[in-house]
Amino acid sequence: MNKYSVSYNVFDGVELLEDSIKCIREHVDHISLIFQTTSYWGNKLSQEEVDIVNTLRKDGLIDDLVHFTEKMDVRIIQTYKRNLGRRLAKKNDCTHYMTMDCDEFYTKDEFKRMIEYHNNNPDKISYIPLEAYYKDTNYMIDSSTYMDGDLYVSGFFPVDNEIVLGFPLKLKVDPTRKPNVSDVSRFKIWEKTELKMHHLSYVRANIHQKVNNAFAKFRYKDNKQRFEKILQCYENYETNKVALSADGVEYNIKTLDTPEIILDKYYENIKYIKK
After folding, report:
1. pTM for the model
2. What is the CATH number of the domain that holds 189?
3. Are 230 and 148 a contacting pair, CB within 8 Å?
4. pLDDT tier at 270 (50, 70, 90 boundaries)?
5. Range of the domain at 56
6. Does an H or E element contain 15, and which?
7. Rounded to an integer, what distance in angstroms lies between the CA atom of residue 191 and that of residue 172?
8. Does some domain include residue 193?
9. Which residues is 141 bridged to in the sheet?
10. 92-115 pLDDT, tens per residue?
């Protein structure tokens, strides 16, 4: 019998975590959290944010909570943490593993569809397209041009397959979540009409915390002017009507009449975090 584990890799954005977990909790057997309370840039989370995570563990939404404090090369740390979650999955006798961040959401029906697929195709590896959001789930970034388009994240894959940094694939996948399998016959590449990840990348109670601690700052050499422009664009959205991402490109925004993702606890939690 297949057993499914999801591990969250978390620093900021913990106000989103409960809503994200509740999208998937009923469909998986094990959830772990690799929790960093001090960012790569030495900034610490507030006690209120730490309390949110500890409450989720106490309430049973998280099965394993690891407070991550190890020091290592930033080029490998993300992959290391995702593999740490994979090892926890194996320890709990899970057959399939998936890594997520707290700003990643799925509709319950689509996530269930992925589980059912892997029950019938246990050796396959899912690759999932995404839609990105800005400020709220009412605002979606134009996906046809976002980060050159056609972005994917890995979904479930057999737990024995390690995630390998920089592993070559023909798909444009987050480099920190590529299972070490290049046989394309094992890939299930989902269409957005079947399954997609809703990436709430720029939905935050505290956008300054996200931008100032972003892993992308390593890629862009901590260019203060670049990241200050991102904050200015975000704060002046009602005037500009565009999104500015870490790649320095402006993207058009479309307003959704009926958002697929409805946030619940997020709005309750931001009162603790919003600056």
Report:
1. 0.93
2. 3.90.550
3. no
4. confident
5. 4-200
6. none
7. 14
8. yes
9. 253
10. 999 999 999 999 999 999 999 999
